[in-house]
Design brief:
With 164 residues, the chain is α/β, with parallel strands linked by helices. It has one domain: P-loop containing nucleotide triphosphate hydrolases (Rossmann fold, 3-Layer(aba) Sandwich), CATH 3.40.50.300. 26% of the residues lie in helices and 25% in strands. The protein has a 6-stranded parallel β-sheet with strand order 2-5-1-6-7-8, sandwiched between helices. Strands 3-4 form a two-stranded antiparallel sheet.
């Protein structure tokens, strides 16, 4: 069975990270193993100049694993920006559900975070596989609406739609 993947989307500073931070403990409390994917279009580096693993990569290794008794990190050169499906299938094992932050253009189900103070339109609609909207204001929309703080109901939707 393929691990279900739900994207948490929204405009910049709408609260995507905060919502994910709050959904994870609620899912854990219900006994699920949660993985997350965060896209950073600007790039990132978990390996620091001068460290052994950095030196391995600089010497030409296409992949490096950094391991300790409690964590492992895998750094690999890639030739394209991987899709969510590629990341899930290649790197994530043992999760019951994956929450992705961003990736609004993907085909996976989405929950959009909407804040009224920004006075912006929604990014997605039902045709974009929008499952629900979590907002600080009631919206007249053709998908499920949740109050941004109603974590139990949001997780109920995820659980009933993808995990049971």
């Amino acid at each position: 069975m393929t691990t279900p993947l739900i994207s948490i989307v929204g405009k910049s500073n709408s609260g995507k990270t905060t919502l994910i931070e709050k959904l994870i403990p609620e899912l854990l409390k219900r006994g699920y193993r949660v993985a997350t994917i965060k896209h950073n279009k600007h790039g990132f580096d978990i390996d620091h100049e001068g460290k052994d693993s950095w030196r391995h990569k600089k010497a030409g290794a296409f992949a490096t694993v950094i391991a300790c008794p409690t964590r492992v990190a895998f750094v690999e050169d890639i030739d394209h920006d991987h899709s969510l499906g590629e990341i899930r299938d290649k790197y994530i094992k043992g999760a019951d559900v994956i929450l992705a932050e961003g990736y609004k253009g993907n085909p996976f189900p989405k929950i959009e975070v909407f804040r009224s103070k920004f006075k912006r339109d929604l990014l997605c609609d039902k045709e974009d596989n929008l499952l629900a909207v979590a907002s600080d204001v009631k919206l007249d929309i053709d998908v499920t609406y949740f109050d941004i703080n109603d974590l139990k109901s949001i997780v109920d939707l995820i659980e009933n739609t993808f995990l049971k």
